[in-house]
Design goal:
With about 400 residues, the protein is α/β, with parallel strands linked by helices. The chain has a single domain, classed as Leucine-rich repeat, LRR (right-handed beta-alpha superhelix), CATH 3.80.10.10. The protein has a 13-stranded mixed sheet with strand order 1-2-4-6-8-10-12-14-16-18-20-22-24, with no helix packed on it. About 35% of the residues are buried.
Length: about 400
């Protein structure tokens, strides 16, 4: 064979090899990951997979992690830089209906699992504890039921857990505190019962509103939570006294405990350099809190919103409320407060919005927006205070 013929042969051989290689891409994704993805899709009702959705493009005739994704696996998964492992599953809100397969545990490099705003049902498999790299677990707005599996507390890398708007029931695991890296916990709008266990130490946000949690709030549950900023526990059945330690959690900014069964508030003035200095908003409305309106709320230097509406408070509105320059929203309506409101609250220069209505106040003119709605009748106020100690007849 001449040199010219040899070089032509070599050229065509290499050309055919290149064409063959581009049309038959070698599979890269780990077989265990492919098996898990197949099981994941098989656990979802085919009738709930629209033709335009991410899951509809999961066609296993093509390797899931091969790039570019032109026709298959166009969305829903992300792979590692070397295209061998699946690192994220983030589904579109397409109305997928099915269960979460226990074989999800094979995706051991998964860092994000987001199935939010679909129609997944059944329990969360305990095998999820094998996802040691999982940082974000979002199952919000589905129909998951059963108790929150204790195995979920073995996810040592988890930073965000959102299973709100589902049908979870039963108690919270006693081992919640072992989620040592968790920053955000949202289990709102479920059917969770019992009391709060000891909480994860690095929490920034705690949201458990609209459940059936009960009992007093214990210091042991919040002990060591120096970074906690937001607490949303409204629409539960927490009871007893809300003690001063709660308001003095060092970084706490927002408290929402509305619509519970709290009966008292014991609050201490924040100290310089101590806890309570960051508190911005407090909502304790629609509880059963008795006694006097706590004057020490006015001592929190950044407090801008305070609501204690529709409780059982009595006595005078603390004059300190009118002296707090940061306070911009004040809701005390629906109690049995009497006497005259601090003049500073009624001046136009105060800039305070809210309501002092539906109390037993004197000198709170209906022309002032802050005094609406109108005060309780004399008959009701006399029943509360006895004799003539309520709001006198005009």
């Amino acid at each position: 064979m001449s040199d010219l013929n040899f070089h032509l042969y070599l050229f065509f051989f290499l050309l055919q090899f290149a064409l063959f290689s581009t049309s038959h891409v070698q599979a890269l994704t780990s077989p265990s990951d492919i098996s898990a993805l197949k099981a994941f899709k098989a656990s979802i009702k085919p009738s709930s997979i629209p033709s335009w959705s991410c899951l509809a493009s999961w066609d296993f005739t093509t390797d899931p992690c091969t790039l570019p994704h032109r026709l298959h696996f166009t969305c829903g998964i992300t792979c590692s830089p070397d295209s061998t492992r699946v690192t994220q599953i983030t589904l579109d809100p397409a109305g997928y209906s099915g269960t979460l397969t226990p074989q999800i545990s094979q995706l051991t490099h998964l860092s994000t699992l987001d199935l939010s705003e679909n129609s997944f049902f059944g329990s969360i498999p305990s095998s999820i504890s094998s996802l040691s790299s999982l940082q974000i677990l979002t199952l919000r707005s589905n129909s998951f039921s059963g108790s929150l599996t204790p195995s979920i507390t073995k996810l040592k890398s988890l930073e965000s857990l959102d299973i709100s708007h589902n049908s979870l029931s039963g108690f919270l695991p006693n081992s919640m505190a072992s989620l040592s890296t968790l920053r955000r916990l949202d289990l709102s709008f479920n059917k969770i019962t019992g009391s709060l266990p000891k909480l994860p130490p690095k929490l920034l946000e705690l949201a458990l509103k609209s459940n059936s949690l009960s009992g007093p709030l214990s210091n042991s549950s919040f002990d060591g939570l120096t970074q906690l900023e937001v607490v949303e526990l409204s629409q539960n059945s927490f009871s007893g006294t809300l003690q001063s330690w709660f308001f003095l959690i060092p970084s706490l900014q927002q408290i929402d405990l509305a619509n519970n069964s709290l009966t008292a508030v014991d609050i201490t003035r924040p100290t310089s350099g101590g806890g309570g200095g960051e508190l911005v908003a407090v909502d304790l409305s629609f509880n059963r809190i008795e006694g006097y309106a706590p004057a020490n709320f006015a001592a929190f230097p950044r407090l801008s919103s305070l609501s204690v509406r529709y409780n059982r408070l009595r006595g005078k509105i603390p004059v300190e409320y009118g002296k707090n320059k940061s306070l911009k929203r004040l809701y005390l309506d629906g109690n049995f407060l009497n006497g005259q409101p601090p003049p500073a609250l009624l001046t136009g220069s105060s800039g305070i919005s809210g309501s002092l209505g539906d109390n037993c106040l004197q000198g709170c003119p209906s022309s002032a927006k802050l005094c609406l709605p109108s005060q309780k009748s004399n008959a009701i106020c006399k029943q509360v205070y006895g004799g003539g100690r309520g709001r006198p007849r005009s």
